[in-house]
Predict the structure.
Amino acid sequence: MKSKFFLTLLFTLLLANLMPAFATINCECGTHDSGITAYTVDAQDCCKGTPGAVAFVHHYRLVNGVYEHTGQTQILGSQAQSTCCPPQQ
């Protein structure tokens, strides 16, 4: 019984350590004035992971000292990543 418990525990810990490698994270860059580009990647690094197919540029305007969301433009995930990440050398 103890060996079954320890095998289950070991398997759970192994999975917990592998999960971040398969996680999707949210990435963004820009400012409210220029537009905020938002996209996802399938890795822990926004510039090295494979971007999702779709991304958005969110547009804002300043109204009485508060930024108001005025809309968004859909772009390709690869375009968003190119916008947010410096060219690889």
